[in-house]
């Protein structure tokens, strides 16, 4: 089972420090939720883990099974089994969904053991059916003209197809209607396994009604300031974040 560890992580963008010493450990079989007010650095954390070049790590460490993630190039991180469903997935003109997924799957395989086209199409068709996606999305250019909800479903399709070891979902629930939310949650729950850990970043508690986390962390001002169980998410939904600021003497 994977062990994913972040220790004392500091990261900045354009000289502005956003992550200010964040520590977290996610093990196979566990679902961690990170909640926090807007602008607190949640997406920065996700992008930093995946190696987005905009973010500069100035201190701390990230490791997967003892391997130094910060030393890996972006594609090596994906090959090691890190997966990010982005808050704002990008559109890629000229690359179809099927092309993109097939090369992503093959990039994780040894040379000579690439997935056959027939097997790939069968898998993709069956996963798309599970997600109640229109089969025509297979041949559309990646995210081009997709609605917000279609983009999010497509991110979940990638997750199902790529079989990652550590899954990071960044506000996968934002902009989803209740049916899409249920479908996304079903996909996540179907992927729950001892061989996989989840980091679910969410602004609202509602996804956590369908996917029960083992741990809930509150992120504020670039750090995790409080951790608990699912009851913490319910309290945040009911009372917001001010009580935590008061409790911890955070001024913003
Ligand atoms: P969250 O996901 O918690 O809403 P973000 O990680 O998106 O927060 O943003 C954290 C902080 O980093 C915010 O203050 C935001 O304005 C800043 N930030 C994010 N992206 C950029 C950027 N490209 N340039 C400058 N500042 C940025
Ligand atoms: Mg935000
Ligand atoms: Mg964000």
Automatic annotation (TrEMBL):
Q: Which InterPro entries match?
A: AAA+_ATPase (IPR003593), ABC_transporter-like_ATP-bd (IPR003439), ABC_transporter-like_CS (IPR017871), FeS-cluster_ATPase_SufC (IPR010230), P-loop_NTPase (IPR027417)
Q: Does the keyword ATP-binding apply?
A: yes
Provide the species name: Paenibacillus chitinolyticus
Q: Which residues form the ABC transporter domain?
A: 4-246
What is this protein's record name?
Fe-S cluster assembly ATPase SufC
Q: Which domain of life is it from?
A: Bacteria
Molecular function GO terms recorded: ATP binding; ATP hydrolysis activity
What are the leading ranks of the lineage? Bacteria, Bacillati, Bacillota, Bacilli, Bacillales
Which PANTHER family does UniProt cross-reference here? ABC TRANSPORTER I FAMILY MEMBER 6, CHLOROPLASTIC
């Amino acid at each position: 089972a994977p062990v994913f560890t972040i220790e004392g992580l500091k990261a900045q963008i354009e000289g502005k420090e956003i992550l200010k010493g964040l520590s977290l450990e996610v093990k196979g079989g566990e679902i961690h939720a990170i909640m926090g007010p807007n602008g607190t650095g949640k997406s920065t954390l996700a992008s930093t883990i995946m190696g987005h070049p905009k973010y500069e790590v100035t201190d701390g460490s990230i490791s997967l099974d003892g391997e130094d993630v910060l030393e890996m190039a972006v594609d090596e991180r994906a090959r090691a089994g890190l997966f990010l469903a982005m808050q704002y997935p990008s559109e890629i003109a000229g690359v179809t969904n099927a092309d993109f997924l097939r090369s992503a799957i093959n990039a994780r395989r040894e040379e000579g053991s690439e997935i056959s086209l027939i097997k790939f199409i069968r898998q993709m068709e069956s996963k798309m059916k599970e997600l109640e996606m229109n089969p025509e999305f297979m041949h559309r250019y990646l995210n081009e003209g997709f609605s917000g909800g279609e983009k999010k479903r497509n991110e979940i399709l990638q997750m199902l197809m790529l079989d990652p070891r550590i899954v990071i979902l960044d506000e996968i629930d934002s902009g989803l209607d209740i049916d899409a939310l249920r479908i996304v949650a079903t996909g996540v729950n179907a992927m729950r396994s001892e061989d996989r850990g989840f980091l679910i970043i969410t602004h609202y508690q509602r996804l956590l009604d369908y996917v029960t986390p083992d741990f809930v962390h509150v992120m504020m001002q670039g750090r995790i300031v409080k951790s608990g169980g699912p009851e913490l998410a319910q309290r945040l939904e009911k009372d917001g974040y001010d009580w935590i600021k008061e409790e911890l003497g955070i001024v913003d």
